[in-house]
Structure formats: C-alpha cells, structure tokens
Design brief:
The complex is a heterodimer of chains A (about 140) and B (about 140). With about 140 residues, chain A is α+β, with helices and mostly antiparallel strands. Chain A has one domain. In chain A, about 25% of the residues lie in helices and about 45% in strands. In chain A, strand 2 and strand 3 form a beta hairpin. Chain B is α+β, with helices and mostly antiparallel strands and about 140 residues long. Chain B has one domain. In chain B, strands 1, 2, 3, 4 and 5 form a 5-stranded antiparallel beta sheet that branches. About 5% of the residues of chain B have low confidence. The chains are: A alpha+beta (about 140), B alpha+beta (about 140). Strand 5 of chain A pairs antiparallel with strand 2 of chain B.
C-alpha cells in the first residue's frame, strides 16, 4: 500500500512539473550548406568555374522564364523558440527567426554571370557580413 | 482505517492522478502568439525617421539590425525588417520540461515588414507592407 501511495505521489509530482513549464527550441534548415560569406564575391562576367570555386556545387539549376540558365544556392532555416506555462499548457509564446541565405546566379548567353540575386538572413549575419550596401 | 477504505481511497487518488497526468502528458491545448522580428523591436513610428539620403548606419541605429539583407532581382541592395505577430492555436501531442511536440494551427498575421533600399550607402527608398488581422469570411 505504501508503495502504491508513493507511486501516486510521484505521478502527481511529475504531472505538476511537466504541466507547469515547457520550453522548446527547434532549428529547421532547407537546402545545402554553402559559404554565405562568399556570396558578395560573385560578380558580373564571372564564368561558371569561378562561381563554383567560391560557392561550390549548386543546390539547384534551372532555366528561368526568360530562357536564362541559372544556379541556385540555398541554405535557409527557421530557428524557433516556444514556451508554455500553466496546467495543461494553457498559454504559450514563441519567437521565430530566419537564418542562412540563398543566391540565384543567372548566366547570360555567353555563359557568364549576368545577374546575382541574394539574401542573407539574421541580425548576426548582418553584423558580420553586412553594411556598405551599394557602396 | 480499514483495509477496504484504504484501497478505495488509493483507487480514487490513482484515478485523479491519471485524470491529470494523461491529458497533460498526452495532449494539451493552448493559445498564444508567435513573434517574428528583427534583432530589436521598434514601433511603426520609428520608420518616419528613415528618409531618403540617410546613411545606412543611421538606419541601423534607428531600427536595429535587420532581419535580412540582400540584392533583389533589379540589383538593388536592401535591408529587410519584419515585425510580425501570428496569433496561433496549438494542439500539442505531449508536454515536458524539455520539450513540446505538437501541431501548430496558425491563425491571423498582424504587423508589418519593411524593405529599406540602399544606394551608395544611403537610403534610396522605403517599401512597406502592413498585415491586417484576417477577418472571417462569414462576418
């Protein structure tokens, strides 16, 4: 009997703890890792080998609506944090931040870089890689 | 206390424990918000400080570090800021001190996002989008 009462007490204790507070962090990435810090080294008139040397093999290749060949590099992620509190998780707050980056390198008819479209996400990335846009 | 009374009490206690433990461990329902924001929060009024000709560093001083930055399909450099709130209902499949595994059923989005275009280190123009909470179609 004492053992059963101890079990009940332990169950109640566990329930109170588990239902009182919950924190969850997740990071979900899409694509393939590539050197984000080299994105801004890609410039017009570069050939495909020079692009590959800096960014590696593309995650995807294709032809756009204007018939131009392009390479895509993508490594984007969402870092989420959520926290809930109260019995049966009555309420929660969560935050989500985008991280990583993506590039589309569009080649012209001579197979050289004609256009580079890119985005790098995250305040930390801006602190390290940003600033001086268009200068 | 007789043995029968003690057994009855322990059964009741065990049922109460199960009643509380099973829902909280197996299924929980909650409501709240998901915030998607840049490194620092700011009010929409702060955008009024951002005007063409302003240096990029002054934009960062006014609005904080951007959520992202890049070059768009017209070759324009930009800083992107998001200040969004997504109301959500959540049904979780289990709770614990270290984790919640669940399914999010997202609700309406409110807030705004801003793209500050930079040319030669200074603001060229500002584009803004405001999200209004979705209204039910049957209202």
């Amino acid at each position: 009997m004492k053992a059963r009462l101890r079990l009940i007490r332990a169950t109640l204790m566990l329930t109170m703890v588990t239902s009182g507070c919950a924190v969850h962090r997740t990071s979900v990435y899409d694509g393939r890792e590539f050197p984000l810090e080299r994105i801004q080294q890609i410039s017009a008139r570069m050939d495909a080998d020079a692009v590959r040397k800096r960014l590696g093999s593309p995650y995807a290749t294709g032809v756009d609506a204007d018939g131009r060949r392009y390479w895509e590099y993508r490594y984007r992620g969402q870092q989420s944090t959520s926290a809930g509190g109260g019995l049966l998780l009555a309420g929660f707050v969560a935050s989500q931040a985008s991280v990583g980056g993506e590039v589309r390198v569009v080649f012209d008819a001579t197979d050289r870089v004609g256009q580079v479209i890119w985005e790098i996400a995250g305040a930390d990335a801006y602190r390290v890689l940003g600033g001086g846009g268009g200068e | 206390m007789s043995a029968r009374a003690c057994t009855a009490r322990s059964r009741v206690a065990f049922c109460i424990a199960l009643f509380v433990a099973l829902p909280s461990a197996g299924c929980a329902v909650g409501g709240g918000t998901i915030r998607i924001a840049a490194d620092r929060s700011f009010e929409p009024q702060a955008l009024e400080q951002v005007a063409p000709g302003m240096p990029e560093a002054a934009v960062v001083a006014a609005l904080g570090l951007p959520a992202s930055f890049g070059v768009d399909d017209r070759g324009r450099h930009y800083l992107q800021y998001n200040q969004l709130r997504i109301g959500a209902q959540m049904i979780a499949g289990g709770t614990g001190v270290i984790g919640v595994n669940g399914t999010f059923a997202l609700g309406s989005t409110t807030g705004f996002d801003v793209r500050v275009f930079i040319e030669e280190g200074r603001v060229a123009r500002v584009a803004q989008r405001t999200f209004h909470a979705a209204e039910r179609a049957d209202r």
